[in-house]
Design the sequence.
C-alpha cells in the first residue's frame, strides 16, 4: 500500500489553469465517484480550494496510481494532459504525506499561516467520507493532518500577527484601546482597504461608524452598508470629539486633518486616545499629530512595515512548524508500515494457534487418566513452544530494518512459507485507531 | 527559616514570570504565580503570627520595615492582578519584592523602638493603611513604566519583543488609575490614624516631623493627580509619568529620616 498525491497549486499553475481545474462541491462529489471507479486507486480524497486542486490516493502501485490520477484530471476537465502536465506536482510515499500535512498546517498557503485552509481540508474530507472513497489509510492520514495542523497552530506563532493592512490596523487598535466595544470609528473617504478595515473593526465589536465623503450620496450609501451615520466632510472636526479610530482614504491633495484641528478637540475628549489610520496617498493626516500625547498616527507605509515584520515573524515560526510536520510524517509512516507487518504477524499467530488447538484436542481424546493439572500443564507447554518458535520470526518482521521494497519481499516470503495467503485468517484485519 | 522559604518562593516566582515574558507560554506564568502567592502566604503567616504573639507591629527597625514594604507590594500586586490579569506585570514587580527582601536581610534585626510605641489599634491602622497605600503607589509606578514602554513602541512603530508581550495601553492606564485611586484613600486614612495616634501618645496632632511634612506633600501630589484626571483627563503618558514621579515622592517620604531626625527615625534605624 502506498500513498500518492497529484495536483497543482498557486506556485505551479497560473490562475487561468487553476480556474479550469477547480471543483465546486457538486463537481467534487461527481469527481469522487469517478475516482472510486478507478481500479488502480483503493482510496482517494479530492482537495479543491481557490489556490489548489489535489488528489491524494492510496494505491498498490504508485506509478500506476499517479498516471490514473493524471488521467482522471484530463478526463473530468476535458483537457489534454500535455496542456497542464508541466503544472502538476507529484508526490509519493512520505513526500505525499508531508505535503498533506504541510497544506493543512498552512505552510503551503499563499499567505503563510492563514487559517481557512484547515476548514477547507475538513470539508474535502467530509465529502470524501460521504462518497465513501476513504479507508483505513486515508482516514488515518486526514485525522493525522488535522491533528498536526492544530498542534502547529497551538505551539507555534504561525497564525499570530496580522499580515494584511486591515488586520494590522485592527491589531494596533486593540493594542491601544484593548476592547473595542465602546469605540467609534470615523471613515473619511472610501476605498477597498479602508472599508475592509472598518468591517474588521465592526467584527471586533466597535460601537459604530461615521462615514464622511466628498459626495454626500456616497457617504449615505456607505453608511447604509455599515449601518452607520453619514456626515458631511465639514462635520469631521466636530466628530473628532466622539470618534476614537479615524480611517482616512481620500483623494485629497493635502492634509484633511492637521495638528491644530486635533489639538482643539483634545480637551473636549478629556485626552482619550485617538488612533488615526491613514491609508491615502498622498497622506490625509498630518504626521505631526503623532507627536501629540495620546494620539497615534499610522500611515500606509507604517502599516506595511508592521506587516513585513509580521511576515518575517511567521516565517521564523514556520521553521518550528516544519519540525512538527516532519515528526508526524515519521509517526504516520511507522503506522503505515506496521499496517503491512501486523496482519502478517496476526495471521501467523492465528494459524499456529489453530494448529495447537486441533492437535491438543486430538491428543487429549486418546489419553486417559489425566487430571486438570496435567491438562493445564500440556496447555502451557504447547503454548510456550509456539511462543518460543514464533519469537524470532516476529522480531525479524517487526525490526523494520528492511527497505520498502525488501519489506514487501520479506512479507511475501513469510506468507509463502507459512502458507498464510490461502488461509482465511487475518484477511479482514482492521487496525485499531491509536 | 521561614523568611528564606518565603524569599525563595518569591525568587522562583520571579523566574516563572521571567520565563513567561521571554517564551510567552502561559505555563511559566502559572507556575511562577503559584510560587509568588505561596511566598506571600508564608510571609503573611510570619507577620501575622509574630503580631499575634507580641501584639507589636513588625516595623521595629529598617529590616522589618523593608520586609513589611515587600509584603505590602506583593499583596497589592496579587490583589490587583485578580482584577486586571496583567500577565507581564509579575516580571516587573517580583524582582522589586525580591530586591527589597534581600536588602532587608542585610540589616541587623536589633530593635530600636520601645515596643509600647507599636501597640494599639491606631498604630495598627496607621501602619497597615500607609504601607498598603504606598504599595499601591509603587505598583502604579511599575504599571506606569510598562505603559511608557508600550506607548513608545506604538509611537515609534517599533513592534518588537516588548510590543507583542505587553497589554493594551487602555488596560495599563486603567490599572495605574485604579492603583492610585486605591492608594490615595489608604494614605488619607493612614494619616488620620497617625494624627489620632500622635494625639494619644504625645498629646499633639502635629509636630512638624519631617516624615509628617513629606506625607502631606505626598498626599497633595496624589490629590492633584486624581483631581486632574477626573476634571481634564490626565491620562495616558502624562498619568504614567506622574505615577513614576509620585514614586520618587513616596521614596523621599520613606527615606527622609535617613537625613533628618524626627519621631519616625527609629523605624529606619539599622
Sequence:
Amino acid at each position: 500500500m502506498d500513498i500518492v498525491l497529484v495536483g497543482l497549486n498557486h506556485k505551479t499553475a497560473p490562475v487561468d489553469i487553476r480556474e479550469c481545474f477547480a471543483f465546486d462541491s457538486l463537481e467534487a462529489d461527481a469527481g469522487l465517484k469517478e475516482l472510486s471507479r478507478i481500479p488502480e486507486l483503493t482510496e482517494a480524497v479530492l482537495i479543491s480550494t481557490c489556490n489548489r486542486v489535489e488528489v491524494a490516493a492510496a494505491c498498490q502501485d504508485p506509478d500506476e496510481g499517479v498516471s490514473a490520477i493524471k488521467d482522471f484530471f484530463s478526463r473530468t476537465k476535458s483537457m489534454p494532459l500535455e496542456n497542464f502536465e508541466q503544472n502538476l506536482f507529484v508526490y509519493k510515499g512520505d513526500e505525499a504525506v508531508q505535503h498533506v500535512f504541510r497544506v493543512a498546517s498552512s505552510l503551503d498557503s499563499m499567505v503563510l499561516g492563514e487559517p481557512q485552509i484547515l476548514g477547507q481540508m475538513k470539508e474535502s474530507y467530509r465529502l470524501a467520507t460521504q462518497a465513501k472513497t476513504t479507508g483505513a489509510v486515508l482516514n488515518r492520514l486526514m485525522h493525522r493532518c488535522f491533528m498536526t495542523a492544530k498542534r502547529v497552530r497551538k505551539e507555534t506563532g504561525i497564525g499570530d500577527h496580522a499580515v494584511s493592512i486591515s488586520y494590522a490596523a485592527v491589531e494596533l487598535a486593540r493594542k491601544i484601546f484593548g476592547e473595542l466595544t465602546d469605540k467609534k470609528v470615523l471613515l473619511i473617504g472610501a476605498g477597498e482597504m479602508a472599508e475592509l478595515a472598518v468591517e474588521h473593526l465592526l467584527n471586533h465589536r466597535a460601537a459604530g461608524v461615521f462615514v464622511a465623503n466628498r459626495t454626500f450620496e456616497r457617504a449615505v450609501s456607505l453608511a447604509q452598508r455599515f449601518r452607520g451615520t453619514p456626515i458631511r466632510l465639514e462635520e469631521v472636526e466636530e466628530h473628532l470629539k466622539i470618534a476614537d479610530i479615524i480611517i482616512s482614504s481620500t483623494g485629497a491633495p493635502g492634509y484633511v486633518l492637521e495638528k491644530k484641528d486635533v489639538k482643539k478637540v483634545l480637551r473636549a475628549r478629556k485626552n482619550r486616545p485617538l488612533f488615526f489610520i491613514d491609508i491615502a496617498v498622498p497622506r490625509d493626516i498630518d504626521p505631526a499629530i503623532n507627536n501629540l500625547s495620546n494620539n497615534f498616527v499610522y500611515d500606509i507605509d507604517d502599516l506595511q512595515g508592521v506587516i513585513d515584520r509580521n511576515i518575517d515573524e511567521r516565517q521564523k515560526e514556520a521553521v518550528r512548524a516544519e519540525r512538527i510536520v516532519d515528526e508526524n510524517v515519521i509517526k504516520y509512516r511507522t503506522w503505515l508500515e506496521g499496517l503491512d507487518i501486523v496482519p502478517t504477524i496476526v495471521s501467523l499467530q492465528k494459524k499456529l494457534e489453530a494448529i495447537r488447538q486441533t492437535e491438543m484436542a486430538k491428543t487429549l481424546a486418546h489419553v486417559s487418566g489425566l487430571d486438570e493439572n496435567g491438562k493445564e500443564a500440556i496447555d502451557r507447554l504447547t503454548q510456550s513452544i509456539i511462543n518460543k518458535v514464533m519469537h524470532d520470526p516476529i522480531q525479524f518482521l517487526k525490526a523494520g530494518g528492511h527497505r520498502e521494497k525488501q519489506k514487501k519481499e520479506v512479507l511475501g516470503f513469510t506468507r509463502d512459507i507459512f502458507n498464510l495467503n490461502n488461509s482465511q485468517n487475518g484477511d479482514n484485519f482492521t487496525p485499531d485507531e491509536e | 527559616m521561614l523568611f528564606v522559604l518565603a524569599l525563595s518562593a518569591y525568587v522562583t516566582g520571579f523566574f516563572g514570570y521571567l520565563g513567561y515574558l521571554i517564551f510567552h507560554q502561559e505555563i511559566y506564568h502559572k507556575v511562577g504565580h503559584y510560587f509568588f502567592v505561596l511566598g506571600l502566604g508564608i510571609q503573611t503567616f510570619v507577620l501575622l503570627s509574630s503580631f499575634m504573639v507580641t501584639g507589636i507591629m513588625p516595623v521595629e527597625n529598617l529590616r522589618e520595615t523593608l520586609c513589611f514594604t515587600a509584603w505590602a507590594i506583593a499583596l497589592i500586586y496579587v490583589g490587583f492582578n485578580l482584577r486586571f490579569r496583567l500577565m507581564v506585570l509579575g516580571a516587573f514587580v517580583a524582582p522589586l519584592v525580591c530586591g527589597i527582601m534581600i536588602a532587608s536581610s542585610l540589616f541587623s534585626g536589633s530593635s530600636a523602638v520601645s515596643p509600647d510605641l507599636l501597640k494599639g489599634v491606631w498604630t495598627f491602622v496607621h501602619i497597615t493603611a500607609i504601607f498598603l497605600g504606598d504599595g499601591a503607589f509603587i505598583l502604579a509606578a511599575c504599571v506606569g513604566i510598562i505603559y511608557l514602554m508600550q506607548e513608545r513602541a506604538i509611537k515609534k512603530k517599533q513592534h518588537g519583543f516588548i510590543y507583542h508581550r505587553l497589554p493594551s495601553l487602555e488596560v495599563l492606564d486603567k490599572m495605574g488609575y485604579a492603583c492610585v485611586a486605591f492608594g490615595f484613600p489608604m494614605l488619607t486614612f493612614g494619616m488620620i490614624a497617625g494624627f489620632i495616634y500622635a494625639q494619644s501618645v504625645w498629646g499633639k496632632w502635629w509636630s512638624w516631623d519631617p516624615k509628617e511634612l513629606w506625607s502631606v506633600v505626598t498626599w497633595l501630589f496624589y490629590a492633584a493627580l486624581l483631581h486632574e484626571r477626573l476634571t481634564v483627563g490626565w491620562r495616558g503618558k502624562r498619568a504614567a509619568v506622574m505615577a513614576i514621579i509620585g514614586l520618587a515622592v513616596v521614596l523621599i517620604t520613606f527615606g527622609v529620616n535617613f537625613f533628618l531626625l524626627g519621631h519616625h527615625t527609629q523605624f529606619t534605624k539599622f
Chain B is about 75% helix and 0% strand. The CA atoms of residues 212 and 238 of chain B lie 27 Å apart. Chain B touches chain A at residues 150, 154-155, 157, 159, 163-164, 167-171, 232-238 (CB under 8 Å). The mean pLDDT of chain B is 87.
